[in-house]
Design goal:
In chain A, α2 packs antiparallel against α3 (71-93) and α6 (180-211) packs antiparallel against α7 (218-238). Chain A contains eight helices and four strands. The relative contact order of chain A is 0.12. Chain A has helices at residues 8-31, 38-63, 71-93, 98-115, 132-167, 180-211, 218-238, 244-268, and strands spanning 2-3, 6-7, 123-124, 275-276. By secondary structure, chain B is an alpha/beta fold. The chains are: A mainly alpha, B alpha/beta.
Chain lengths: 283, 349
């Protein structure tokens, strides 16, 4: 399936290019000790988002469902989720450098996924067997991973700002970081949104699992474990038991663990689903 | 008959020591008197007086070269300053050079504190006062309006105004990095000394939510609290009050630390989520250095603040050449616009 003669991967490459441009421009501005234009950053990332949405739409049409059927699509979808959230949060909370870090994360996720042909070697057509609820469950779960990706970014920014203030290194990148309290507030909101989305997703999943208890395997328990861990973090934060740097570190480590858990979860899904080789890649 | 010239006559911290600047300062009635004198000065077509603690500069349009000499005589007479003394400290510039100087003054690169913003407001006030007195005309109007645009341009496009350079402002800047919005912050000022008061005022000017003062001398605390519209806290209850404040500014003359690590740790147990920012302006220090090791606690002492201030100043100074070159371009363009107006004044006279 193509649009203007370009296939889904070509559109996704263009989206990656936008994220890369945003990242490079942001880096250049930081190296020159200049405040980057938030509007320009927002516009470039938004352009990338539109292109990525188009690419994922074409892929979705091709695979007849939500494009989260292989590792490539999962990485793309996670990056797309993080970007879509940034576009909302960036416009609402105007956190400086969040666009820069989000573009960096999305560039990494998308370029790595595009650069690993093995991840997109097999495409699952109708991977969810036409069950809309299961598809919604998977999409919500992945969207929550996008939220947690953004949470990991704000937590990383929190750690950088804390380091800067504790060690009295206030120039360069550090001088443009948002305040400690702003980062903490946004992190708590993201944690809450992520947990709610994942709870919703697992609620839908649990309904199906309960009908077929034999289908509950280790990867599913792994996903439930990720959910449980984030729930625990949220409870501890709301009770002021896990705060400041420790909270930030936990959010970063947890996201890395969650990302690593995606591999086994994806591999376990639809082991006998019909697979088709991808069409020849267009540049 | 020669064409009118745009000129600057005066003295600044670059040319005159403090004692002479004091003599030249045009306080109160003196400024009115000078305006009266200059209004009746033959050949002085337009003028504006910039009078700050660091400079007295008269910008104007003179019909003849000798007009400036008459103006100088009037200025010296008014200030009872010997003409020979004034000649040693005098700054006199003409046309394009005077224009470049005004641009540099307004942009803050001629200031004692490079990049400070107050000077632009003072130049605006000087121009507004001249306009109100009817002493400006087509040349000065054009020059001043374009000067304000140029100053704004360099501030936006260079790092000349980046970072604070006074200790009090640096402390406020750091608080902004921690809390973002100071309107919801509570500040405790421990010690009623001059530097503590200055810092407290800097916080007050940024609309902090609440402020309280604690001092061994309760009368001093009360007086400072009144001027800051703050509350007072008994000195021996500082430890007890600490968890209720976000920022603690300490500047007492106590020979030992008045805030210990244990005290701060106890405070943090009651306010784990919100950071606590300690500013130690005392010598010897009022706050145990170990406080900085606590999570979510930030401690800056006088040396730390001075270091940040020095870094900011160095950054501004590094930007000066870039600013000067931008202003040179602006001055070239503006001078091309002003020259015909000066000729116009000549034709009119």
């Amino acid at each position: 399936m193509t649009f203007l003669g370009l296939g889904d991967r070509a559109w996704l490459w263009l989206a990656s290019a936008c994220y890369l441009i945003a990242f490079v421009l942001g880096t250049v501005a930081l190296l020159r000790d200049r405040r980057q234009s938030r509007l320009a950053m927002y516009a470039i990332v938004a352009a990338g988002f539109v292109l990525q949405t188009l690419g994922l739409y074409l892929r979705g049409r091709a695979v007849k469902g939500c494009p989260i059927g292989n590792t490539f699509e999962i990485f793309q979808f996670t990056a797309w989720s993080a970007i879509s959230l940034y576009l909302v949060i960036g416009a609402t909370f105007r956190l400086s450098l969040l666009g820069y870090f989000t573009s960096c994360l999305s560039a990494v996720l998308t370029v790595v996924s595009l650069g690993a042909p093995g991840w997109d070697a097999t495409r699952r057509i109708n991977a969810f067997g036409g069950t809309a609820w299961v598809e919604l469950h998977a999409a919500l779960a992945l969207f929550s991973y996008g939220v947690f990706a953004l949470l990991a970014l704000t937590s990383g920014m929190y750690l950088l700002q804390t380091y800067s203030l504790k060690h009295k290194h206030l120039r360069g990148l550090f001088s443009f970081l948002p305040s400690i309290l702003d980062l903490d507030h946004i992190s708590v909101r993201l944690l809450l949104v992520g947990v709610v989305l994942m709870t919703w997703s697992l609620g839908i999943g649990a309904y199906h699992w309960l009908q077929d208890l034999a289908s509950v395997d280790t990867p599913k328990l792994l996903t439930a474990g990720v959910w449980l861990a984030y729930c625990l973090v949220l409870i501890l934060r709301l009770r002021s038991r896990l705060v400041a740097q420790r909270l930030a570190w936990v959010c970063v480590v947890l996201f890395v663990a969650a990302l690593l858990s995606l591999g086994p979860v994806n591999a376990s899904r639809h082991p006998v689903a019909p697979a088709v080789p991808p069409p020849a890649h267009k540049p | 008959m020669s064409a009118p010239t745009f000129f600057l006559l005066g003295a600044s911290h670059h040319t005159a020591p403090l004692e002479l600047r004091e003599k030249l300062a045009l306080a109160g009635d003196k400024l009115d008197a000078l305006h009266g004198e200059l209004r009746s000065l033959a050949g002085l077509q337009e003028f504006a007086v910039l009078n700050t603690c660091n400079r007295v500069e008269i910008y104007g349009v003179a019909a003849q070269p000798e007009t400036v000499a008459h103006l100088q005589a009037a200025l010296c007479a008014l200030n009872q300053l010997d003409a020979a003394v004034f000649a040693r400290i005098r700054l006199e510039l003409r046309d394009r050079t005077a224009l470049q100087h005004l641009l540099e003054v307004a942009a803050g690169i001629d200031s004692q504190m490079v990049g400070e913003t107050e000077i632009l407001g003072q130049v605006k006030d000087a121009y507004a006062a001249a306009q109100a007195r009817g002493t400006t005309g087509p040349v000065l109007n054009r020059i001043f309006q374009k000067t304000f645009q140029a100053a704004k341009h360099v501030r936006t496009n260079t790092a000349i105004g980046e970072g604070q350079i006074s200790v009090a402002s640096v402390a406020v800047d750091l608080a902004l990095k921690i809390f973002g919005d100071l309107r919801r912050c509570r500040v405790l000022v421990v010690g009623a000394g001059a530097i503590g008061e200055k810092t407290a005022r800097a916080f007050k000017s940024r609309d902090v939510g609440e402020m309280a003062v604690a001092s061994r001398n309760f009368q001093h605390a009360g007086e400072l609290a009144t001027t800051l519209a703050a509350q007072t806290v008994a000195f021996d209850r500082v430890a007890e009050a600490l968890p209720h404040f976000d920022i603690a500014v300490c500047s007492t003359a106590a020979p030992v630390a008045i805030v210990t690590q244990a005290m701060a740790a106890l405070a943090m147990r009651q306010r784990a989520v919100r950071p606590l920012f300690f500013i130690d302006l005392a010598m010897p220090r009022n706050i145990e250095p170990g406080v900085a090791d606590l999570p979510n606690v930030f401690l800056y002492n006088l040396d730390d603040l001075a270091k940040v201030s020095a870094e900011n100043l160095a950054l501004r100074q590094a930007e000066m050449e870039r600013v000067r070159s931008l202003l040179t371009e602006k001055a070239d363009v503006l001078w091309r616009q002003v020259e015909p107006r000066l000729s116009g004044n000549h034709a009119a006279t």
